[in-house]
Structure formats: structure tokens, C-alpha cells
Write a structure and sequence with these properties.
Membrane topology: Multi-pass membrane protein
Number of domains: 1
Subcellular location: Cell membrane
Shape: globular
Protein name: BCCT family transporter
Helix content: over 70%
Radius of gyration: 23 Å
Number of strands: 0
Strand content: under 5%
CATH class: Mainly Alpha
Order of helices and strands: HHHHHHHHHHHHHHHHHHHH
InterPro entries: BCCT_transptr (IPR000060)
Structural class: mainly alpha
Organism: Halalkalicoccus tibetensis
Length: about 525
């Protein structure tokens, strides 16, 4: 038997083995430090987090605004007709499965964790000066939640990467790696070392983004099990993660269609049912009124909220929120964007915009309106805020559950949703980590199983960190270097899309749209 076969690396070159073992080594080192020296890891991460947001918070905001413009341009210009994978490719998944996978992978458990955590945090620690004078702090808090996890956050980081990766890895048939996005600018043969470094850094950044989400979920599950159901020992939480890991490994062997698709469908349906139940059990009238009021503030002041930096206030409030969100989206976007490109083969850029921006914006608006109205209602906000101040966001979520009628039922459903998000996220993450490592569209199950086992251990490790806030640091620190990659992505995606449009759709005599290079002789003759 080939000695590389247990790792799923048989027949691969040294470069591929380097991707795998280099990233695995970095991940294993992080796990060891987190288990043996959790306080040291927390201090290091929080220091790096503060430095990144203090010095580069403005950059995340500015780049995010540019990416929104780019996204709309690509979706609604003539390039929106381009089909990912080529004109002859048919979609692999029905519309419901497609949207369910895109939605559950793109958000994880952040809808629950931050759906409670951000509005309560903003009410407890409001901005130094209100960007919308006259707005109530409750409505402003929910408006910021809409901004960060509905729109424009939805259009900034996932879709640009999905478009670029889809065009170059599928439509263009380039190498199935993150670095393929640079092929328009650089020759892979000449600058192979740079392509290798980009791919290795991308894998580590993806793991960093995963660590953030797994950390939030792990600590939230532990708190719900303890505060709502009285399971005081971490052994029960470890056992739950072990069970999730076993189900996840079974999913790995089932693959993309039978495993990831079905996990996403289950989680998506359960999430809709839980939202409906919460609307009925919670303060229904207050939820509806606050959602409408916050929606008006959000939509009427969208540019102001998105670019709010409070430069004269001497504080870092906007950077700690908006810049943090954009950094998290950026780190998470490498994985989500590549996965969305994979499941969107056969769909046009415009259709992908609808599945990744329009539909999730509506869904997250609805869910955050319900969750935000639930915890900000007069009978809930006092105890929930107290739990947040005395402990942290996980305690605030658990307190809100215990205050709600049929709280145990609601708690069970939320635990199932979060477990479903973990399964879907891990499933799709290891699929893309393995695919990028091997440079193959459909990676083998053995290699995926290695990634899955290590990521499951990473999730358990986060339970050992002494502070929930340490999880926030992974994404900004990992994402900062890749913001330059997004700048390159804008250029290379446009150049590739323009070329495909000219080859597939351009009518005789039609000039290139916003051509950035001089037309050829054939162009001038209408060829």
C-alpha cells in the first residue's frame, strides 16, 4: 500500500503534500497551545486583535464599500449572464438545496449568538455619539445588526470571492486552488513559490475563520447546556461535540450530495420553524414594531451606518463592531466563496447574487428582527443585559431562553440548530480544505476525514479558552493580509469576465464594456 494512501495523498506531488502537512502542523500547534496555555493564547490573540482593528479598521470599512460596488456591477452589468462552469454546464442542485447550503454554510451559528449578543451589547455600551440622532438605542442596535449580517455585509466578501473563484477555477478551467485568482497577473511557472505561499496562507486563514465560528458555537452550547438544562460539567459538552464529530465523519463518507446537502436542508427547515415558534412564544407585538422601526433606520441611513468611524470621539466603538464584522466576513469569505462557487456550477453570476445576497438578506432580516425584538423587549432586556455584563454573550442567550415560555423546548431546538450549523460548516469546510489542498474538485473521503477530525478537536479546544472574547480575535488577525488579495480579486475577476463575455455573448460590432485594454484589430472590425 502507498504510504500516502491513509492521508488521501497518493499520487500527489511534493507541493500538495506541503500544503497538507504545513497547514496541519500550524493547526496542531494552535490546538496544543490552546489546551496547555489557554491564558497565553487568549492574551496573544486579544493583543493582536486590538492592534489590527485600531490601525486598520478604516481599511476594512473602505474595502467593504468598494466590494459592494463591484458586486452589483458584476451581477447587473452584462457580465451577470456568465454561467459558472461554462455555458453547457447544468446546475447540480435544485433551488431549495442550493439556497439551503449557501445559507447554512455562510452564517453558521452567528445568527443566534450575535442575534442576541450584538443588540444587547450595543444597548449596554452604546456608541459615543449616535450616528442617527433621535433614534432609540434599541432600534439603532437592531439596525446595526441588520447592517452587519444582512446588507451590505452579505454583498461584500462572499460573492466577490465566489465570482472570482468560480470564473477562474470552473469557467476558465484553471488550477483548483485559491491562488488561481492570481493567474491573470502572474505566470505560475515563474512565480510558483508565491502561488504556494498564497495557498498555504489561505488554508491557514480559512482555519482561522473556522476557529472563530467553532469557538462561538462551542462556548454557546456549553452555556446553554449548563444554564438551561443544568448540565454543569464540561464532559457533557465534550460528549456532544464527540457525537457531532461521529455524525460528521459519517457525513464525510456520504459526500457532497447525500451528506452536506441533507444536513443543510435539515438545519434550514429547523431554523425557520424555530423562528416561527419564537415569534409566537415571545413578545410578538414588540418584535413586529421594533423590527419595522429598526428597518426604517437601517435602510434610510445605510451609508452613514456603514461608514461610521467616530473620528473625534477618541474611541474604537465602530472599529470594534463594523470593522470586526468585515474582518470576520473576509476570513470566512475565502472558504464560503469557494464553496458557493462549487455548488453554484451551472448558475449565472446574477442567479448566484440572488442566492447569496438577495434571499439570505431577506431571511436574516426576518430572523434578526425576531431574535432582536425578543431580547430587547421590556420584560427581557433587564435580565439579559445583566447576564451579559456579569458574564458574556453565551450567558445572555441562555438567560433569554430560560425567560421564554416553553424555554426547554426552545433550548432543545436551538441546540439542534447550532449542532446542525456545526455539521454543515464542518462538512463544507473540510470538503473545500481538502479540495484546495489536493487541487481537485471532488476530494477523496480519507483526506477529508483528517481535516474533519482535526477541526473537531479545534472546536473542543475552544471550550478551554478562559474568555469568549478570545474567539473574536482569530478572524481579524487572519483576514488582514488577505484584504490585499481581495483588491487583486477585483481586477482579475473583471478581466476574466470581460474575456468570457467577448467569447460567449458579444454581438458582432459590440464594443467591450469598460474595456481596460486597447481593442484588437478584430474588435475594431466587429469580429
Amino acid at each position: 500500500m502507498d504510504r500516502w494512501e491513509p492521508f488521501g495523498l497518493e499520487g500527489t506531488d511534493r507541493e500538495t503534500k506541503g500544503f497538507f502537512f504545513g497547514t496541519i502542523t500550524a493547526l496542531a500547534a494552535l490546538i496544543v497551545v490552546g489546551l496547555l496555555y489557554p491564558s497565553l493564547l487568549e492574551t496573544t490573540l486579544n493583543t493582536a486583535f486590538d492592534w489590527v482593528l485600531f490601525n486598520f479598521g478604516w481599511w476594512f470599512m473602505l474595502l467593504g464599500a468598494v466590494l459592494v460596488v463591484f458586486t452589483f456591477f458584476m451581477a447587473f452589468s452584462r457580465y451577470g449572464r456568465i454561467r459558472i462552469g461554462g455555458e453547457d454546464v447544468e446546475p447540480e442542485f435544485d433551488t431549495f438545496s442550493w439556497i439551503a447550503m449557501v445559507f447554512t454554510v455562510g452564517f453558521g451559528s452567528s445568527i443566534i449568538v450575535w442575534g442576541v449578543g450584538e443588540p444587547i451589547s450595543i444597548v449596554t455600551e452604546p456608541p459615543p455619539s449616535s450616528p442617527v440622532p433621535g433614534a432609540s438605542i434599541e432600534s439603532l442596535a437592531l439596525a446595526f445588526m441588520f447592517l452587519h449580517e444582512s446588507f451590505p455585509g452579505m454583498a461584500m466578501w462572499y460573492l466577490p470571492f465566489a465570482i472570482g473563484f468560480g470564473l477562474m477555477a470552473y469557467t476558465d478551467g484553471d488550477d483548483y486552488r485559491i491562488s488561481s485568482i492570481m493567474s491573470v497577473l502572474l505566470d505560475r511557472e515563474r512565480y510558483g513559490w508565491l502561488f504556494w505561499l498564497v495557498d498555504l496562507a489561505a488554508l491557514i486563514a480559512i482555519v482561522g475563520g473556522l476557529a472563530t465560528t467553532l469557538g462561538f458555537t462551542a462556548q454557546q452550547l456549553a452555556t446553554i447546556l449548563s444554564d438551561v438544562f443544568g448540565a454543569e460539567t464540561n464532559l457533557i459538552t465534550y460528549g456532544l461535540f464527540a457525537l457531532i464529530g461521529l455524525v460528521f465523519l459519517a457525513d464525510v463518507w456520504l459526500g457532497l450530495h447525500a451528506g452536506i446537502r441533507n444536513a443543510a436542508r435539515f438545519t434550514f427547515v429547523l431554523m425557520l420553524l424555530t423562528s416561527g415558534l419564537l415569534l409566537v412564544l415571545g413578545p410578538t407585538l414588540f418584535i413586529l414594531n421594533l423590527t419595522l422601526d429598526a428597518t426604517g433606520i437601517w435602510l434610510n441611513n445605510l451609508p452613514r451606518l456603514a461608514l461610521y468611524t467616530a473620528p473625534t470621539e477618541g474611541a474604537q466603538w465602530p472599529q470594534s463592531w463594523t470593522s470586526f464584522w468585515w474582518a470576520w466576513w473576509a476570513a470566512w469569505g475565502l472558504f464560503v466563496g469557494s464553496f458557493v462557487a462549487r455548488v453554484s456550477k451551472g448558475r449565472t453570476i446574477r442567479e448566484t447574487f440572488l442566492a447569496l445576497v438577495a434571499a439570505p438578506t431577506l431571511l436574516t432580516w426576518m430572523q434578526h428582527g425576531i431574535i432582536g425584538g425578543w431580547v430587547l423587549a421590556p420584560e427581557y432586556i433587564g435580565p439579559v443585559s445583566e447576564a451579559f455584563v456579569e458574564e458574556d454573550i453565551p450567558a445572555a442567550v441562555a438567560t433569554a431562553i430560560t425567560l421564554t415560555p416553553f424555554g426547554n423546548l426552545l433550548g432543545v431546538m436551538i441546540v439542534l440548530i447550532m449542532a446542525g450549523y456545526v455539521l454543515t460548516t464542518l462538512d463544507s469546510a473540510v470538503y473545500m480544505l481538502s479540495a484546495i489542498t489536493l487541487g481537485e474538485e471532488d476530494p477523496n473521503a480519507r483526506n477529508r476525514a483528517w481535516w474533519g477530525a482535526l477541526l473537531t478537536v479545534l472546536g473542543i479546544m475552544t471550550l478551554n479558552l478562559p474568555a469568549f472574547s478570545a474567539m473574536e480575535a482569530f478572524s481579524p488577525v487572519m483576514a488582514l493580509p488577505f484584504t490585499l488579495f481581495f483588491v487583486v480579486l477585483i481586477y482579475t475577476s473583471y478581466v476574466t469576465a470581460r474575456r468570457h463575455y467577448r467569447e460567449e455573448y458579444r454581438e458582432p460590432g459590440e464594443r467591450p464594456f469598460l474595456a481596460i485594454s486597447r481593442p484588437s484589430k478584430d474588435d475594431e472590425e466587429g469580429g
